[in-house]
Amino acid sequence: MRYLLFACLFVVLGCSSIECPVQNTVACIYHLKDTLKDTLTIKTVRQNGTDTILLNKAQKPVSFKLPVSYQRAADTLIFQTFRLAVVDTVWLSKTDFPHFESVDCGVSYFHQINDVRCTHNGIDSIKISKSFIDYVPDNPHILIYFKARN
Description:
The chain is mainly β and 150 residues long. The protein contains one helix and ten strands; from the N terminus they run H-E-E-E-E-E-E-E-E-E-E.
């Protein structure tokens, strides 16, 4: 009887695990519709005015994930290509939503993309494919079309 009591207590205490989304990241997935045959670096501007590199010298990228801020209404991304030697700026307007899992877990932020626009030095067009950014990385959020270059 004593062993049965300890076994039940062990099962009850052992099942109270906390499943925080440690491995789940909230990131915007960008997909290049035509392969960029160049090296791409992407920077963003911080609130204090300095910049930081988010993607460093990716060669012939097809798609990539970038983090999304949760303190600003819009993210500013600077796309630099090496061979084409062009710089484009992409503005991603969004609404942030705190996502609560558990008292023991930190708050995550999901995002609703409201608008995306860019300069057109090397980028031909840009459009929203999936407007809600959450943990599910099934489809790209943003589609980018670069200008055809020989």
